[in-house]
From TrEMBL:
Coiled coil: none annotated. GO terms for molecular function: DNA binding. SUPFAM superfamilies: lambda repressor-like DNA-binding domains (SSF47413), Periplasmic binding protein-like I (SSF53822). Keywords: DNA-binding, Transcription, Transcription regulation. The lineage of its organism: Bacteria, Bacillati, Bacillota, Bacilli, Lactobacillales. Signal peptide: none annotated. Residues 3-59 form the HTH lacI-type domain. This is LacI family DNA-binding transcriptional regulator. The keyword Transcription applies.
Amino acid sequence: MATTLKDIAHAAGVSLTTVSRVLNYDQSLSVGAATRKRIFAVAEELNYTKIRRPQAEPQTKLHKIAIVQWYSEAREQDDLYYMAIRLGIEQRSQYHQFEVTRIFQNNINQLTGEIDGVIAIGKFSADQVSELQTLTDNLVFVDDDQFTAGFDSVLTDFAQAVQQVIDFFWTQELHDIGLIYGTEITTDGQRQINDPREQAFKQAMTAHQAYRAEFCFASDFTNQGGYQAMKQAITTLGDQLPHAFFVANDPMATGALKALQEAQISVPERVSIFSFNDTALAKYVYPELSSVHVATNLMGATAVDLLQKRAQQAQVPQRVELGTELVFRASTK
């Protein structure tokens, strides 16, 4: 098995980021000469070889790209949002006749040979970003804002979407609105990700002078997570249970629906539910979920186009933020 940066970092007793920057001759890195010497000595001892092409070689056409999905294959089946993004990437890549390699759960050690570009889906720590950068300079992130770190990023406009949901509930005279949102951590456990919908919700409700922290419940982005969060809301709030809930994704919303049904709380007569992502799951539950439609296919296609442009000529990083639209179904009045 080929030596990785993690192997060198472990043997040299330094961070993965430090190894990456030293081996890339980053003169701005504040590290002692002894540490630099030790890292190069360990790299030589372990026969480390970079697998990305030399910087001086011109590249005008992508041939082989890798999709690095932060979810496992099993988890991707449970959260169709990330699967839809991946399919969008693959469809656009097929149009350009790119050879595509899929890597799940950020396991880049599975990559063999040389690649021309990487599209990373999900959330990544600084060390994971540094490791991806050793593969190629052509790197695009989807659903993770790495723009300030110098990388192209394709994102969703969460703030506007949440504001539209709150505005809709307000027109329905629903002013006591609860939130079920998610918490995540990168696969290496190094970065905790805050749900941008939680902050957008707080801002929108505060503007109406209606934000109540006790109406907000955090869990993981799974069906069981949504179920447990709504069970907690029902138990702790009782008759004060909000008449509307915004839920951060479709799997959580289906779990929340189950908890309400078990408690014999009618939807939407007593509680209205508005979900997020609008995957196929939203249409296969009862009642069908109103949901914020996210342009997942376009997110994937945009990432491929950005990668192609970056390979053709050097350019400044781009941050592309796509809009959303509300899809109304039976879970709201």
